[in-house]
Amino acid sequence: MRIAILSRRPSLYSTMRLKEAGKNRGHEMFIVDYLRCYMDITSRRPQVIYQGEPLKVDAIIPRIGASNTFYGTAVVRQFEMMGVFVANESQAISRSRDKLRSLQLLARDGVGLPVTGCAHSTKDIDGVISLAGGTPLVVKLIEGTQGVGVILAETKKAAQAVIEAFRGLDANILVQEYIKEAGGSDVRCFVVGGKVVASMKRQAAPGEFRSNLHRGGSAEKVKITPEERSTAVRAARTMGLNISGVDVLRSNHGAVVMEVNSSPGLEGIEKSTGVDVAAKIIEFIEKNAKAGLQRDKGKG
């Protein structure tokens, strides 16, 4: 098959590993900068054009950066219009990038979550703090990524000051209970095709409560419980993602989901677990894209 990886940076570990895994399984692999793609949206003959030539591929793996979600998902959507198999659909990617919408959908489907509040007016600060169980609590920018815009407020005055500052910048925020018993750690479950293929425990650096590896956290292989496995799979299914990284906290009231990532990195999970996650992704595409191609041939 001809498989395109939509990525802005060919040198990224995740991009290189996906290309390598695809080549090892006999596929033609291409890295495409989706911001350099342009689209012909003519009725009945949609095209994606890259470096002056129409892109003709059987499948794509979107690796869309958070700051480029609008145009990146538009390119993915154009491939969908062309009948190309996409590893993660455009709507699912957009859904996952909106933290508030994600949590609302997960809550509707009964997936375990930290107690979470959201308010628009600073006049309602006390109410939303109380709703989240008081302090300490976590204040999050809805648009933040990789731990940016996530602050632990240890007192009510600190929480009020942080919320007022964010709202003064017209930033949208969430307020969540602080899961102290997690001890600055979380579990990243990597879900591919409705199955957890690898999992790691991420531990925050000393003096830090955010466990993101980009913020100096460490990672190690971990055995997850049946509840954690079920929670991760349900969260991915709710978001409509075939490939995702589901971040779970171990709380006193069970596994709770912090975030569902539509472009999870491969480096930390592969190096800490020894699992060839890139190959798992290619295998998923083989099984599902080929099934689609066979159906299309049958129609002819």
**Multimerization status:** single chain
What do we call the CATH homologous superfamily of the largest domain? ATP-grasp fold, B domain
Radius of gyration: 20 Å
Shape: globular
Instruction: Assign the structural class, choosing from mainly alpha, mainly beta, alpha/beta, alpha+beta, or little secondary structure.
Output: alpha+beta
What is the helix/strand order?
EHEEEEEHEHHEHEEHEEEEHEEHH
- The number of helical runs is 9
Low-confidence stretches: 293-300
Strand content: 25-35%
- Per DSSP E runs of 2 or more residues, the count of β-strands stands at 16
End-to-end gap: 19 Å
Q: What is the percent of helical residues?
A: 25-40%
User: Average pLDDT value?
Assistant: 88
Total domain modules = 3
Describe this structure in words.
With 300 residues, the chain is an alpha+beta fold. It has 3 domains: 2-88, Rossmann fold, CATH 3.40.50.20; 96-112 and 181-279, D-amino Acid Aminotransferase, Chain A, domain 1 (2-Layer Sandwich), CATH 3.30.470.20; 116-178, ATP-grasp fold, A domain (Dna Ligase, domain 1, 2-Layer Sandwich). The chain is 36% helix and 26% strand. It contains 9 helices and 16 strands. It has helices at residues 13-24, 69-81, 90-97, 99-108, 125-131, 156-168, 226-239, 267-273, 277-299, and strands spanning 2-6, 28-32, 38-40, 47-50, 53-54, 59-62, 85-86, 116-117, 137-141, 150-153, 173-177, 185-192, 195-203, 218-221, 243-251, 254-261. A 5-stranded antiparallel sheet has the order 14-13-12-15-16, with helices on both faces. The protein has a 4-stranded parallel sheet with strand order 2-1-6-7, with helices on both faces. Helix 2 (69-81) packs antiparallel against helix 3. It is globular, with a radius of gyration of 20 Å. The two termini are 19 Å apart. The relative contact order is 0.14. The model is unreliable at 293-300 (pLDDT under 50).
